[in-house]
Structure to design on (996 residues):
C-alpha cells in the first residue's frame, strides 16, 4: 500500500526500461496473477498481486497482514516483562536481537544499568543471531533461485548448530526469551562458551565451502547481478536499513553509528556494495558473516567475569517512571527498534515496534518493475523478510 | 565376447522359446509385443528405482540419509528404503483425482497419457544390447527426435487444459524451451550421423567398435568433435527433459508446480513417470551416439554381456543428471533461450565444421595425427571462449569495499 | 568464469556426497524414534508443579496459590483457585494451597516467566515434549493432578538448578526453624503463654 503510493516517484528513479502503462490497449492483454498467500516462495503468508506483460512485471501490489497478531496492542495490555516472550515471535529467526532491542528500550526508560559480562554476552548472542539469519537467508535465496535444496540444507546444517547453542543457553531453540531488563536471564557456563568458540572458529571453513559451492556460479550471477537494483537516494528516502541499505553503498550501521552495547570495543568493518542489486545484497551478508565471526572471537578473548544480572534489577512489580524511550539496535535485517511510553503503571502506555522487514518490504514494487516473475521471487528473497515481523 | 554366446543372445532365446508355442503367423506379432512389454516393464521398474535413487543421491549430497524407512511391509526389515517406490505408488493410486471445474476435461486427461505415450515411443530405436533393439529402423535417429519433440506438446496441453495462470505460464515456457533446445540437440547429433554415415542407431554403435592399441575404445566422445558434441548434447538433453537447471516449466519456487499445478493422484504420477522415461530415453540416446552404446569400455572387459554395459553407461549418465540437479540454480527464461541461441547453436555449428575437418583428415598418419588433435581442439576452444565471454559479458565476481 | 564456477560447485556437492558416507560431520541426522538427541539441561517445555513427596503429591505441593504466576503469565494460560483451609508448607508455616491449578497447554508459550516470578520455587519447566493427544480441548488443559511431579523428578531433568534450589530452600527452612525455636523460647519465657501453635 505504501509501495503503490510512492511508486510514481520510484519508477522515475529506478530504470524502468521495460515498464509500460497498465492500461495500454495496443499490446494485448495483461495477466493478473495473485502470488500468495499460499505460494512456495513468498516466505510465509504474503501476497504479491502482480500484473504481467508476458512474464514481465508491470505492476505489483504487496498485500500483507495475513499474520497480524495484534502485537503492539498486546504489548500495551501486558506488563513490561510479559512482552519479552512476545518479541521472540516478531522475527522468529532472530529472537535474541529482538530481545536485546526491547530490553534496551526498557533499560533506557528505567535508567537500568547492565553488568559488563551481560553486555558481552549480548554482543556474542547478537552476532551469533546474525550468523544464523544470514546463513538462512543465503540458503533461502538460493532455494528461490531454483537450487534443489542443497545450499539450503547446508545452511540449515550450520543453523542447527547455532540453535543447539541457543537451546543449551536459553532452553529454547527459537523462542529464546533470554534478555531481561538489567542483564541476561542466566549465565553462560564454561562448557557453553567452549562450544560456542568452537563453532565460531569453524564457521569460516563452512563459509568458504559455501562460497565455493555457489558464489562464483555463473548461473547465480546471471540471475542476480543487475536484478532488483536499488538506488541509494531512494533507499534512504524509503527508510531502508540493514544489509539492503549497505548493498546500495550507504555506510549506515547502527553498531557504528549508535555504538550501543560494547560494539565500540570491537574491531570490525562494514562491507558496502556498489550496485544495490540482488547479488550485492547476497554478498554483503556473506561478508558481514565473516565480520561477525571476528567480533565473536574478540568478545570471547576479552569476556570478563562477574554477574550477568544487575542485582538491583526488579523482575516483579516493575514500574518505570513516566517518560518515553526508543531503543534500537542493528538487527540482522536492519534497524529493529522499540518505542515505549510509560505512564508509571506496570504496563506501557504505548508500545510500538519499528520492524526492519516491514520497512524494507515497502520498496518491493520499485525493485520488481520491469523484471520477470522469476526475478520477483529472488528479489523478495533478497529483501529478507519474516512475515511475523512484517504483520506483527 | 563372442557375439553369439548364450549370455549375449539370452533375451532373444527366451523370446523365441516363448513365441514357439504360437502358430507361425502370430509369431511376429507376439515377438514384438514381448519386446514392448519387456521394455516397458524394465523401464517402469527402472523408473521406480530411479525415484528412490534420485532422492537418495539428493539427500546424500545435502547431508541427509534420504528415504530409508519403508522396507518390506509388516516386518521391521527396511532394506535402505527400497519399498519407498511401492509406497509412493500406492499413495498416488489412492489419492483423489481432482480436475478443476473450469479445466478442459478431455485435454486435462489426455495430456499425461499423451506425454507417457510419446516418451515410450522413443525407446523403440535404442539399441539396448548387441541384439536388443526393439525396432531396427534405417532412420532411427530421425525417428527418435521426432517422437521426443512431441513430449513438449503434451506439456503444453497440460498447461493449457488446466486453466491455471501458473500452468499457462509454464506451458509458454515449455514451448520456448522446446524450440530453443531442439536445435542444439539435433545439431550436436549431426556430426555423429555425418561421420558414421548412417541414421541407424545400431549402425552408429557398430561404428564405435574397435580398439585403439587393442585396448582403448573408439567411442565418439573420445574425439574432439565428439566430446564437444556430447557436452552440447548433455546440456540440451537436460533442457529437453526439463531437468534442473532448466526445469523452468516446473519451476517450483516461481510457478508452484508449473504445468503440474492442477494435477493430482495418478495423473501426476504419470507425468512423473513420463519425465523419467524421457530422461532415460535421452540418456540412452546419448550413450548410443557418443558413449559407444553397448560396447565395452576396455577390450578385455568385452566378456560381460553388452546390455549390462549399456545399463551401466545409462545409469552413469542418469547419476550425472542428478548430480547437476543437486548443484545448480535455475536459469531465467530469457537466459535459457539466450544460452541456446547465442552459445549452444553457434558452438554446435562450429563443431560441425570440426567434424568435417576430422573426417577429411582421417588419413593423416604418424606425428601429424597429433596436429590433427591440436587443430581440432583449438578450433573448438576459440569459439567456446569467445562465445562464453560474450554470453557472460558484464557478469563477474565483485570486489567489495569496506566503510572507513 | 566460463563454467569454472559451475565446476567448483559440482566439486563441492561431489565432496559432500562422498563425505556423507564416512564423515559424521557431514551426516548430522539423528533418526528420531530410535535415536534421540540428548536434551540440554536448560531445555524447557511446559510448566509442572513441584511436590515434595511422590507418595502424596497433592498434599505436599510447594505452591501456596499466591497467584503471581497467574497474573504474570503473558498469554494467561494459568487458572488458580485458592483453598479455603490452610496446610503447612515446606518450612512448616501454614499456607493456602491451590484448590484448582489449571494450565492450558494449548495456550502456554513456554516462556518460563511463571518460573522466574514464583517466589516459592513451586513451578518449574518440564522437558516432556511428546505430548500429542487426540483431543485438543480437554486433554490439553492440564489439571493440578497431572501437573504435580515430585522434587526427585525435578532433580533428574534439571540437576544443577534443582540442587541450587534445594540448597536455598534448606537454608530458608533452617532459618525458619531457628526463628520458630527462638519464638517458642520467647513464648516459654513469657509469663502466660497462649495456646501452643499446632505442630509443624
Amino acid at each position: 500500500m505504501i509501495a503503490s503510493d510512492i511508486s510514481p516517484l520510484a519508477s522515475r528513479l529506478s530504470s524502468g526500461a521495460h515498464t509500460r502503462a497498465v492500461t495500454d490497449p495496443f499490446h494485448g492483454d495483461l495477466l493478473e496473477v495473485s502470488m500468495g498467500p499460499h505460494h512456495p516462495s513468498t516466505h510465509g503468508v504474503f501476497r504479491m498481486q502482480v500484473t504481467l506483460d508476458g512474464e514481465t512485471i508491470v505492476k505489483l501490489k504487496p498485500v500483507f497482514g495475513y499474520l497480524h497478531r495484534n502485537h503492539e496492542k498486546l504489548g500495551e495490555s501486558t506488563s513490561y516483562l510479559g512482552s519479552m516472550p512476545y518479541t521472540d515471535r516478531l522475527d522468529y529467526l532472530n529472537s535474541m536481537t529482538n530481545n536485546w532491542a526491547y530490553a534496551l528500550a526498557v533499560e533506557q526508560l528505567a535508567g537500568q544499568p547492565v553488568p559488563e559480562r551481560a553486555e558481552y554476552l549480548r554482543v556474542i548472542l547478537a552476532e551469533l543471531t546474525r550468523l544464523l539469519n544470514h546463513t538462512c537467508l543465503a540458503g533461502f535465496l538460493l532455494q528461490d533461485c531454483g537450487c534443489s535444496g542443497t545450499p539450503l540444507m547446508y545452511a540449515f546444517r550450520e543453523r542447527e548448530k547455532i540453535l543447539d547453542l541457543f537451546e543449551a543457553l536459553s532452553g529454547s531453540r527459537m523462542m529464546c526469551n533470554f534478555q531481561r531488563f538489567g542483564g541476561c536471564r542466566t549465565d553462560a557456563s564454561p562448557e557453553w562458551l567452549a562450544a560456542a568458540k568452537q563453532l565460531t572458529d569453524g564457521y569460516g571453513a563452512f563459509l568458504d565451502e559455501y562460497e565455493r559451492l555457489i558464489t562464483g556460479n555463473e548461473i547465480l550471477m546471471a540471475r542476480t547481478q543487475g536484478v532488483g537494483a536499488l538506488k541509494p537516494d531512494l533507499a534512504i528516502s524509503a527508510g531502508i536499513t540493514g544489509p539492503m541499505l549497505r548493498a546500495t553503498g550507504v555506510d549506515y550501521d547502527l553498531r557504528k553509528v549508535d555504538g550501543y552495547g560494547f560494539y565500540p570495543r570491537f574491531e570490525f568493518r562494514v562491507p558496502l556494495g556498489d550496485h544495490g542489486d540482488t547479488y550485492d545484497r547476497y554478498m554483503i551478508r556473506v561478508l558481514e558473516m565473516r565480520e561477525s565471526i571476528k567480533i565473536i572471537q574478540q568478545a570471547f578473548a576479552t569476556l570478563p567475569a562477574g554477574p550477568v544480572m544487575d542485582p538491583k534489577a526488579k523482575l516483579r512489580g516493575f514500574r518505570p517512571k513516566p517518560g518515553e524511550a526508543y531503543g534500537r539496535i542493528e538487527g540482522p535485517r536492519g534497524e529493529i527498534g522499540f518505542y515505549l511510553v510509560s505512564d508509571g503503571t506496570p504496563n506501557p502506555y504505548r508500545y510500538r515496534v519499528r520492524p526492519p522487514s516491514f520497512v524494507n518490504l515497502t520498496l518491493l514494487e520499485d525493485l520488481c518493475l520491469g523484471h520477470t516473475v522469476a526475478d520477483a521471487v529472488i528479489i523478495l528473497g533478497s529483501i529478507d523478510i519474516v512475515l511475523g515481523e512484517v504483520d506483527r | 565376447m563372442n557375439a553369439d554366446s548364450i549370455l549375449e543372445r539370452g533375451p532373444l532365446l527366451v523370446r523365441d522359446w516363448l513365441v514357439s508355442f504360437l502358430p507361425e503367423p502370430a509369431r511376429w506379432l507376439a515377438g514384438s509385443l514381448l519386446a514392448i512389454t519387456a521394455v516397458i516393464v524394465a523401464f517402469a521398474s527402472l523408473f521406480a528405482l530411479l525415484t528412490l535413487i534420485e532422492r537418495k543421491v539428493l539427500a546424500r549430497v545435502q547431508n541427509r540419509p534420504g528415504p530409508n524407512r519403508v522396507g518390506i511391509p509388516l516386518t521391521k526389515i527396511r532394506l535402505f528404503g527400497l519399498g519407498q517406490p511401492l509406497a509412493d505408488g500406492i499413495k498416488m493410486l489412492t489419492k483423489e483425482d481432482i480436475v478443476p471445474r473450469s479445466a478442459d476435461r478431455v485435454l486435462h486427461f489426455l495430456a499425461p497419457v499423451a506425454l507417457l505415450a510419446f516418451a515410450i515411443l522413443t525407446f523403440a530405436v535404442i539399441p539396448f544390447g548387441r541384439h536388443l533393439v526393439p525396432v531396427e529402423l534405417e532412420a532411427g535417429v530421425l525417428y527418435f527426435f521426432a517422437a521426443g519433440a512431441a513430449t513438449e506438446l503434451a506439456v503444453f496441453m497440460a498447461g493449457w487444459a488446466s486453466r491455471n495462470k501458473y500452468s499457462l505460464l509454464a506451458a509458454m515456457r515449455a514451448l520456448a524451451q522446446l524450440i530453443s533446445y531442439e536445435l542444439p540437440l539435433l545439431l550436436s547429433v549431426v556430426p555423429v550421423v555425418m561421420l558414421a554415415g548412417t541414421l541407424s542407431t545400431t549402425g552408429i554403435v557398430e561404428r564405435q567398435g574397435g580398439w585403439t592399441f587393442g585396448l582403448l575404445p573408439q567411442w565418439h566422445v573420445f574425439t574432439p568433435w565428439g566430446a564437444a558434441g556430447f557436452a552440447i548434447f548433455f546440456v540440451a538433453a537436460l533442457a529437453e527433459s526439463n531437468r534442473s537447471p532448466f526445469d523452468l516449466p516446473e519451476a517450483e519456487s516461481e510457478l508452484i508446480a508449473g504445468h503440474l499445478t492442477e494435477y493430482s493422484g495418478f495423473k501426476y504420477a504419470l507425468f512423473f513417470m513420463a519425465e523419467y522415461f524421457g530422461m532415460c530415453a535421452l540418456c540412452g540416446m546419448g550413450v548410443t551416439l557418443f558413449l559407444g552404446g553397448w560396447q565395452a569400455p576396455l577390450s578385455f572387459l568385452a566378456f560381460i554381456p553388452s546390455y549390462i554395459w549399456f545399463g551401466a553407461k545409462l545409469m552413469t549418465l542418469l547419476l550425472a543428471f542428478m548430480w547437476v540437479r543437486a548443484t545448480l540454480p535455475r536459469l531465467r527464461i530469457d537466459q535459457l533461450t539466450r544460452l541456446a541461441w547465442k552459445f549452444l547453436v553457434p558452438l554446435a555449428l562450429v563443431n560441425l565444421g570440426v567434424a568435417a575437418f576430422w573426417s577429411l583428415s582421417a588419413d593423416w598418419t604418424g606425428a601429424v595425427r597429433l596436429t590433427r588433435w591440436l587443430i581440432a581442439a583449438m578450433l573448438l576452444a576459440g569459439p567456446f571462449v569467445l562465445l562464453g565471454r560474450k554470453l557472460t559479458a558484464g557478469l563477474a565476481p565483485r570486489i567489495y569495499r569496506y566503510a572507513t | 568464469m566460463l563454467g569454472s564456477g559451475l565446476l567448483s560447485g559440482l566439486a563441492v556437492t561431489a565432496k559432500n556426497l562422498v563425505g556423507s558416507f564416512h564423515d559424521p560431520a557431514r551426516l548430522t541426522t539423528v533418526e528420531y524414534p530410535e535415536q534421540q538427541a540428548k536434551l540440554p539441561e536448560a531445555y524447557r517445555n511446559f510448566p509442572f508443579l513441584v511436590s515434595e513427596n511422590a507418595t502424596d503429591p497433592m498434599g505436599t505441593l510447594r505452591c501456596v496459590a499466591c497467584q503471581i504466576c497467574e497474573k504474570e503469565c503473558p498469554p494467561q494460560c494459568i487458572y488458580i483457585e485458592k483453598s479455603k483451609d490452610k496446610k503447612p508448607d515446606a518450612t512448616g508455616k501454614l499456607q493456602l494451597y491451590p484448590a484448582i491449578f489449571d494450565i492450558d497447554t494449548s495456550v502456554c508459550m513456554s516462556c518460563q516467566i511463571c518460573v522466574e516470578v514464583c517466589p516459592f520455587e513451586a513451578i518449574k519447566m518440564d522437558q516432556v515434549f511428546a505430548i500429542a493427544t487426540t483431543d485438543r480441548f480437554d486433554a490439553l488443559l492440564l489439571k493440578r493432578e497431572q501437573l504435580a511431579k515430585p522434587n526427585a523428578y525435578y532433580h533428574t531433568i534439571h540437576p544443577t538448578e534443582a540442587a541450587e534450589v534445594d540448597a536455598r530452600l534448606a537454608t530458608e527452612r533452617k532459618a525458619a526453624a531457628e526463628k520458630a525455636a527462638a519464638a517458642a523460647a520467647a513464648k516459654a519465657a513469657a509469663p502466660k503463654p497462649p495456646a501452643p501453635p499446632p505442630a509443624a
Remarks:
- The mean pLDDT of chain B is 84.
- The interface with chain A takes residues 58, 61-64, 165-166, 168-169, 244-245, 247, 251-256, 325-335, 392, 394-398, 400-403 of chain B (CB under 8 Å).
- Residues 99-388 of chain B form one domain.
